[in-house]
Design brief:
mainly alpha; four-stranded mixed β-sheet; 4 strands; elongated
């Protein structure tokens, strides 16, 4: 229920902010004079902006399994698998969430958590990570992923993505309308200038929106690191795990779940990176004492 309310309030907040911005700059009157209906556009933008993000969230767990080949385990397969399941169960109990599914997939060192609901999430680790870390470090990584679930990071990122998508869709069409009327002098309907401008603006605004989403993603990594330290009772295992990750090449993840991993290759520009530098994450944990 809380998540439903958060979704509804977020949509309302987006519409209110866009309405206020248009009113303050007088754009609502200017657009209305051109015969352009702002209200329906706001509603259309919100629907388009959130629909894709929500569908991706609802499908995230199944898509993650399919794209990585992750195999869900129940602990009966081996002693190592039993330890993984028991460790995740212990952290889930501390976090006050339902037991996530636990999965293992073939690949270079990495791990991720995903799922639309706190009580039915998925925590997965790669064989490369299990082979390159000791149990204390693996436990810290599992705690990090459970913290993502407990913090509701998947839903939060979906809402943020929906918000920025709404702005991209709305503003692109507003700019397209202005350019079409003012530059190309289209008097009725929409001319080619509108469609060209909308496409260009969606690319430009989409890139700017990616910077915002990436910034929020980096902040949640710090919170998940702190969550791991709290579950383990000591920040040192997570620090050691991060140091080890800093010395190896992280395994690539599919684009749809790349931001959900424990680590990632540095982006070509820091502003677009979904994970903070390892050094910053270690420093943040060390500052906690």
């Amino acid at each position: 229920m809380k998540r439903i309310m958060l979704f509804v309030l977020t949509n309302i907040a987006v519409l209110v902010v866009l309405t206020v911005v248009l009113r303050v700059f007088g754009l609502d009157r200017a657009i209305a004079q051109e015969g352009f209906a702002v209200g329906p556009l706001l509603a259309f933008s919100a629907v388009v902006g959130f629909t894709g993000a929500i569908i991706s969230l609802l499908m995230s767990k199944q898509m993650a399994k399919w794209s990585t080949g992750a195999q869900v385990i129940d602990g009966t397969e081996s002693a190592d698998h039993a330890w993984l399941v028991q460790t995740v169960r212990g952290f889930a109990q501390k976090a006050g969430i339902g037991m996530p599914e636990v999965a293992v997939y073939e690949g270079e060192p990495n791990a991720f958590a995903t799922g639309a609901f706190k009580n039915s999430a998925l925590v997965a680790v790669s064989t490369g990570l299990l082979q390159s870390m000791n149990k204390e470090e693996v436990a810290a990584v599992l705690g990090h992923e459970v913290a993502h679930v407990a913090n509701g990071d998947m839903v939060t990122m979906t809402l943020i993505q929906g918000v920025v998508n709404t702005f991209v869709v709305f503003l692109s069409r507003i700019v397209g309308t202005i350019v079409d009327r003012a530059v190309f002098r289209t008097e009725r309907g929409f001319g080619p200038g509108y469609f060209i401008t909308v496409i260009v603006c969606q690319i430009v605004f989409g890139l700017l929106a990616s910077i915002i989403v990436a910034w929020f993603s980096r902040q949640r990594e710090f919170r998940a690191d702190r969550g791991s330290a709290d579950y383990v009772g000591n920040p040192q295992p997570m620090i050691n795990a991060l140091k080890r990750l800093g010395g190896i090449e992280p395994g690539p993840l599919p684009e749809s779940i790349k931001a959900l991993g424990i680590s990632d290759r540095p982006g070509w520009m820091a502003l677009f990176s979904t994970h903070p530098p390892i050094e910053q994450r270690i420093a943040a944990l060390q500052s906690r004492g």
